[in-house]
Amino acid sequence: MPLPRTRGTALRHRLAELRGPDVPAKALDARALAALAANPGCKRRAILDGAGVNKAALANALGSPSVFGQSQFAFTRGNTFEAKVKADGGAELLRLVHEKLDRTAEPPAHARVPELTATGPEGRTARTALALREATEARGEWTLFDHPMLALDVAGSPAFLEPDAVVVHPDGSWTVVEIKSFPMLDGSADPAKVGAAARQAAVYVLALERIAARLASDSAPAPRVRHRVLLVCPKDFSNLPTASAVDVRKQRAVTARQLARLTRIEDIADTLPDGTCFSPDLPAADLTTAVESVPATYAPECLSACELAFHCRARSRASGAVTSLGRSVRAELGGLTTVEDVLSAARGETGDPDDPAVAALRRAARLRAEALGVEVAACR
Question: What b/e string do you get for 317-353 counting C-beta neighbours within 10 Å, with b at 16 or more?
């Protein structure tokens, strides 16, 4: 007699069915997790990311290829720069951490670099947690974690995350290090790129806080996870590393709140029709039906954060949904959910005149008509 499945095993089996037979799961990284947290109402992204679906391959199969993501050139350049920053046991990286974040500590003449190799993400996560505890208890010395593995629960499913580096200070506190290949010109970088890096680092801070909480005991408090992370970038137009301390408290608070709002993946999976599958090998018509069976919450911001954005934008426009105009516009329109509803209310054909959104639209229509010298029914 086969053993009964646990709830977790059943969910993993269900998510594997959604990916398709023999389709490997795509890991949910911190960048994707930050983007998911920025749009917690999108059940489509939640289930696709939770199931490990390759959204880029899915977008290609749907006929809406994505241009989202790094080019191969940028990827190679980033890896080369990261290797330079971490050379010689991370001496330059630790110098920057000391200079920007911890000048009162002893300068890092040398540092421990623990071996974090283990089998599978679960094994690497456990090995990282053990090494963090050992480094924290050692005190008095610097420790550099090169690509540790962290875990964070996302809508009831574990996400495994791999920051560029984590540094344990001599006082036992922990700092996240983000290494990026975009330049810092005269000490500052592109604000949009810095903001994206801060949101990504905030995810790592949250994951480290979970580990720190588990290490707390009656005799020892939880290790302190610093909310100022180190952003390392090339200096000006050279390949020399420079760094800046970035406070991610705001991004951490927003990400934690948004992740808590995510609908549990198993609840979304339970609403899908039997046989639903997102394998890119399926015919385009079947794949479209499967994707449309999960509600999406499209916004223009998705274009810079999600591989399925072009597909969702086309569907949003085809249905006349006001979400394609942006979240701020959508919030101002109240119960008006389609562009046709908005235009009809502005013309005075439908809508409650006492509704603030309808009243504002009619006033805007009158002002436009006056400016253009046009007489319309709503303005008479």
Answer: eeeebbbbbeeeebeebeebeebebbebbbbbeebee
Distance CA 17, CA 374 (A): 58
Nearest one of 162, 233, 156, 151 to 200, comparing CA atoms: 162
Rounded CA gap, 163 and 157, in Å? Answer: 19
Contact 295, 44 (CB under 8 A): yes
Contacts of 334-341 with C-beta under 8 Å, sequence gap 24+, read 336/361
Tokens of 188: 């500052």
Q: Let me know: does 308 contact 66? Beta carbons within 8 Å.
A: yes
Q: How many CB atoms lie within 10 A of CB 230?
A: 24
Q: How far apart are CA 10 and CA 265, in angstroms?
A: 12
DSSP code, position 74: H
β strands within the chain, DSSP E: 111-112, 142-146, 150-154, 157-161, 165-168, 174-179, 228-234, 241-247
Torsion angles phi and psi, residue 372, rounded to 5: -95, -5
Please work out, in degrees rounded to the nearest 5, the angle formed at the alpha carbon of residue 80 by the alpha carbons of 76 and 85.
145
Q: What pLDDT does 6 receive?
A: 56
Cβ neighbours for 91, distance < 8 A, ≥ 6 positions apart: 108
Quick check: 375 pLDDT over 70? no
Count CB atoms within 10 A of the CB of residue 15: 19
Q: Using CB atoms within 10 A of its CB, is residue 355 exposed (0-12), middle (13-18) or buried (19+)? A: middle
Q: pLDDT band at 7, cuts 50/70/90? A: low
pTM of the model as a whole: 0.77
Q: Tell me, what amino acid is at 217?
A: S
Question: Locate tokens 């007699």: which residue?
Answer: 1
Predicted confidence at residue 4, as pLDDT, reads 44
Q: Quote the tokens at residue 28.
A: 């949910």
Sign of CA dihedral 336, 340, 346, 348: negative
Position 31, amino acid: R
Tokens linked to 329? 């516009």
Task: Measure Cα distances from 170 to 103, 141, 149, 330, 338 in Å.
Answer: 12, 5, 22, 50, 58
Rounded CA gap, 133 and 303, in Å?
40
Determine the pLDDT at residue 3: 39
Task: Report the length, in residues, of the chain.
Answer: 380
